[in-house]
Amino acid sequence: MSTTPSGLPKRLVIASRESRLAMWQAEHVRDRLRALYPDCEVAILGMTTLGDQVLDRALNEIGGKGLFIKELEVALLDGRADLAVHSLKDVPMELAPQFALPIVMKREDPRDAFVSGRFASLDALPAGARVGTSSLRRAAQIRHRYPGLVVLPLRGNVNTRLSKLDSGQYDAIILAAAGLKRLGLADRIRAIVPPELSLPAAGQGALGIETLAGRPELEAWLAPLADPKTAAEVAAERAVSRVLGGSCRVPLAAWCVSRADGGLELVARVAAEDGSAMVEAVERCPQADRASAERIGERAARRLLEQGAAQWLGSS
Ligand SMILES: NCc1[nH]cc(CCC(=O)O)c1CC(=O)O
After folding, report:
1. 186: nearest Cα among 236, 134, 115
2. How far does the centroid of ligand 1 lie from the alpha carbon of residue 119, in Å?
3. Is residue 6 part of a domain?
């Protein structure tokens, strides 16, 4: 990487998917870097991923996690980009050894949002109402709690999903609150879905920055963007997912919050896809370092397995 006399890189390129949400996220990182390093030119390289192209099948049928990041990783390997910005929830638990995820940024609202023209909340939906979501996690939890609702698949980026709701294909849809807020669409949120009803996905609402492994200088440049509190929370959540082989192919939810006393509290759930059963584990620890976070994540995963979660996690 060529540098200015002060040691700053002259130019940094951010690889991003081209959806509006992904671009917002990349621009957010670009603006933070420009403010930190005014002498450095920061550019965005937009690209389409397989996950963006295949819109006619549910995500769990086309290979799950990694779908949205592979092309971005190729740009890192080719040297066309220096960093890639991801929604952490789309990042696989294990990266190939060439890659690293040195930065987790401060989290936006991690909860799910209920969006509907006619109805105020999941509770207000009549039996038979059609709820759109492409996430097995959301579908399983909603079916578990509201067996009378009809949960239907819904794919596409945030704007596509909203237009499918507006055209009458669904009575309500569930989206991540974070995506709506980032896109300036918070006014579409009729209600935040309480985590008791739909616990978020591991990493939801947080952004991760991926680079090639072994780039300590680049990591040092990016370090001011990191949020240690979010990093600890998502380390616990991602540990649950790692132990359980999590991908978007499994109905797994995990949410960790930092407590006022400096500790962490983690809730994790696995549900049967048809909603017929659900198991939950709650784990706490008094510290918020990475090792403690991963330990409660692993403990929660074991508790879920003890309660029979394996039968709902599929064979993968
Ligand atoms: N699976 C797609 C995806 N990946 C990240 C977000 C939202 C933003 C975030 O969680 O950071 C979304 C949309 C959604 O689930 O509604």
Report:
1. 115
2. 22
3. no
CB atoms within 10 A of CB 303: 17
Q: Which residue range is the domain that position 274 belongs to?
A: 234-307
Ligand 1 binding pocket includes 179 (Cβ within 6 Å): yes
Collect all residues with Cβ–Cβ distance below 8 Å to 98 and sequence separation of at least 6: 73, 77, 212, 213
**Identified catalytic residue from 90, 109, 112, 171:** 90
Rounded CA separation 181/260 (Å): 25
The answer to the question of residue 176 being in a domain is yes
Asked if residues 208 and 59 have their Cβ atoms less than 8 Å apart, the reply is no
Query: What's the CATH code of the domain at 290?
Result: 3.30.160.40
Q: SS3 of 20, please?
A: helix
Residue 287 falls within a domain, yes or no? yes
Rounded distance between C-alpha atoms, residue 60 and residue 275, angstroms: 17
Ligand 1 within 6 A of 176 CB?
A: yes
Residues in the chain: 316
Answer yes or no: do 160 and 246 share one domain: no
For residue 154, report the phi and psi dihedrals to the nearest 5 degrees: -150, 115
**pLDDT over 70 at 5, yes or no:** no
Examine the residue annotation and report whether 90 is marked as an active-site residue of this protein: yes
pTM above 0.90, yes or no: yes
Percent of the chain with pLDDT over 70: 90
ipTM: 0.94
Residues 6+ apart with CB under 8 A from 256: 232, 233, 234, 236, 237, 264, 265, 266, 267, 293, 296, 297
pLDDT of 127 reads 97
**Is residue 49 within 8 Å of residue 21, measured between CB atoms?**
no
DSSP string, 127-140: TT-EEE---HHHHH
Bridging pattern class, strands 112-115 and 191-192: antiparallel
Do 249 and 184 share a structural domain? no
Mean pLDDT, residues 255-268: 97
